[in-house]
Amino acid sequence: MAIVTFTSPTMHKDKAVYAVAGDTKTILALAEDYNIPISFECRDGNCGSCLIEVTYDDPDTKKAIMLTDKEKSTLKELGKLTAEEIENAEVNDMPPRYRLACQFIARDENVTVSFTGEPGGA
Ligand code: FES
After folding, report:
1. Which of 64, 68, 92, 110 is most buried by its number of CB atoms within 10 A?
2. CA–CA distance from 121 to each of 20, 76, 83, 92 (Å)?
3. How far is the CA of 117 from the centre of ligand 1 (A)?
């Protein structure tokens, strides 16, 4: 079970929701279930509209959530992924700070997802 807390200037207050362990819903799908307004267009990791910033409530429980090549290249195009973060992801399985909500799946760690409400504006 993961607790995903959504926070954005477009929301009245933060919203914490439970993501069921073993569920493969993306953060974008979870947000839609709870009417949380994360922007999106392609749902396929290409456009960058669904950019989010992810922080881990307990950094020691960070799970290795693989960046797909598509997510990696879109984040690079947006200037939201440094060479150091790529190396950290590939070598140390450390997830980067920015992700795409349509690609990111919360496992059993508690995370806070921040977004501005502007497409690609996390
Ligand atoms: Fe296009 Fe996520 S909706 S990258």
Report:
1. 110
2. 28, 14, 21, 27
3. 13
